[in-house]
Amino acid sequence: MSFTRLLNAPLNILKDFVQLMRLELAPDRNMKWSMQLCLTIPPAAPPIAPSGMSSIVMIKNKMLFFLQLSRLVPGEPSHIAVPVVYDLSANVMQVADKRLEAPGAQPNAPVTIINAMLRRFAEFAPPNECCIFPSIREILTSLTIPPQ
């Protein structure tokens, strides 16, 4: 179901997802993280919907999808499930997690750091280019999570 929803996405979004799939199949050795595009909601994801449900949802001008970032370096989390919302009209991405808005949200939590990186990327991204692939590539290249 997720894959067919992705195939019905606008062409610029589809191109970015094809690039993500290529990156998933042949990861760059210079990146700190590897990425998997989840077609179902992973069990480790925030409780947005039940695990196993379709993970790519498009409603009006927003798109929800899930990524699983993996790193095999001691001292850092080995897997992070990240729900991402892409706003088609504003060309902006953000992490879809209500824990970010909670008063006791940890500033060093992985999703908080990723959300801050996405916000910074939105400030400098070219307005006429889809930001999905470049922003995720930036996260894979430069995401550093401090020890808890």
From TrEMBL:
Transmembrane segments: none
GO cellular component, one term: core mediator complex
Superkingdom per UniProt: Eukaryota
Organism: Amblyomma cajennense (Cayenne tick)
Biological process (GO), any one: regulation of transcription by RNA polymerase II
MF GO annotations: transcription coregulator activity
Name recorded for this polypeptide: Putative mediator of rna polymerase ii transcription subunit 14
Domain Mediator of RNA polymerase II transcription subunit 14 C-terminal: 7-146
